[in-house]
């Protein structure tokens, strides 16, 4: 099932110049709530006074604190009435430096099916740009913490359908990792995203932000078969990836892990069996050569594999005559004599 997503989030609704609720009035309301004997009754009165402007004051410097208190103290019925006016602007308020505090509180305190439905309805089309935003990503993570896994499926759908744009963003990659590290999902939802990460491993491995997700997958999860699946995707492109600044680090991590020896063997075997791939990598004296130098001494490789690798590289280096090639050949010949 494919959803429609927006690439950008509209601006927050602004209070008119003839606003009733100026800073002084908002401060006075906050004070009334904080000092009231019957806090709920006072909050209900203030909610009624604010209702027409509730969406506008949610991103105000003082207004957002008033909105937070209203959602803490009002009845569920009043919270729903306020949310009906705020919800269409929820994404815009979530990416605002003041508004983010109001939306996080609103989502954290959502209790009734009607409230959760409203939040989901208006967050869903904006999940990709929200995850890419320094403030907006918290709104998405708050929704997950409500613990209704079925209602939260739209978040995982967005992460899979818009994987590349989200994963390549600074906040997108980190918020995705935060979500995947949390307990706020079913195992099925986690596997759904992990399968997509493996499927797009080649493109993800060449971007500094998205490569973080592959590193997390290799080093911080225990999902069976993840490294082997990723290695299978990357192997046809080894000659390009091993000379890439970021992708070569991902490949090395797969070689230097011992939880899935099969993944390591698949990559090493390709380097041993495919002369063209090895020559292409060694021909790059900047990154390719450094990568192979690291692989030859990789601590995770068994001694016979290291020796076979060293022998193969020595043989390939005989035909290459760059200064870096001569230096590496000298080092390998020296260490083979020591062995």
TrEMBL record:
Query: Which Gene3D superfamilies does the UniProt entry name for this protein?
Result: Leucine-rich Repeat Variant
Positions annotated as Pumilio repeat:
49-84, 85-120, 122-157, 233-269
Organism equals Rhizopus stolonifer
The answer to whether the entry has keyword Transcription is: no
Q: Could you state one GO biological process linked to this protein?
A: nuclear-transcribed mRNA catabolic process, deadenylation-dependent decay
Extract one GO molecular function annotation from the record.
Answer: RNA binding
In what residue span(s) does the PUM-HD domain sit? 1-336
Instruction: Identify the domain of life.
Output: Eukaryota
Q: Which UniProt keywords apply?
A: Repeat
| Pfam families, per the entry | PUF (PF00806)
Put simply, this protein is called PUM-HD domain-containing protein
Keyword Hydrolase applies = no
């Amino acid at each position: 099932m494919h959803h429609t997503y927006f690439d950008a989030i509209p601006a927050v609704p602004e209070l008119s110049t003839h606003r009733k609720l100026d800073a002084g009035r908002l401060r006075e309301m906050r004070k009334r709530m904080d000092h009231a004997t019957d806090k709920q009754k006072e909050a209900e009165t203030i909610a009624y006074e604010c209702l027409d402007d509730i969406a506008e004051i949610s991103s105000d410097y003082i207004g957002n604190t008033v909105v937070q208190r209203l959602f803490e103290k009002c009845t569920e019925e009043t919270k729903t009435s306020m949310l009906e006016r705020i919800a269409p602007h929820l994404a815009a308020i979530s990416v605002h430096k003041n508004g983010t505090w109001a939306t996080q509180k609103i989502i954290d305190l959502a209790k009734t099916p009607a409230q959760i439905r409203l939040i989901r309805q208006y967050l869903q089309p904006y999940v990709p740009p929200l995850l890419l935003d320094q403030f907006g990503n918290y709104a998405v993570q708050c929704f997950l913490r409500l613990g209704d896994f079925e209602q939260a499926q739209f978040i995982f759908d967005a992460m899979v359908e818009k994987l590349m744009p989200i994963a390549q963003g600074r906040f997108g990659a980190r918020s995705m990792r935060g979500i995947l590290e949390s307990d706020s999902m079913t195992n099925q939802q986690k596997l759904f995203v992990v399968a997509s990460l493996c499927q797009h491993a080649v493109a993800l491995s060449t971007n500094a932000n998205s490569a973080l997700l592959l590193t997390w997958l290799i080093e911080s999860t225990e999902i069976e078969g993840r490294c082997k699946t990723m290695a299978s995707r990357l192997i046809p492109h080894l000659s390009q990836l091993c000379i890439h600044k970021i992708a070569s680090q991902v490949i090395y991590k797969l070689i230097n892990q011992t939880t899935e020896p099969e993944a390591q063997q698949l990559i090493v075997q390709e380097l041993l069996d495919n002369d063209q791939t090895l020559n292409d990598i060694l021909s790059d004296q900047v990154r390719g050569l450094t990568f192979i130098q690291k692989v030859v001494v990789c601590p995770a490789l068994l001694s016979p594999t290291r020796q076979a690798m060293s022998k193969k590289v020595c043989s390939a280096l005989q035909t290459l005559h760059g200064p870096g090639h001569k230096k590496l050949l000298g080092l390998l010949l020296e260490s083979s004599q020591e062995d």
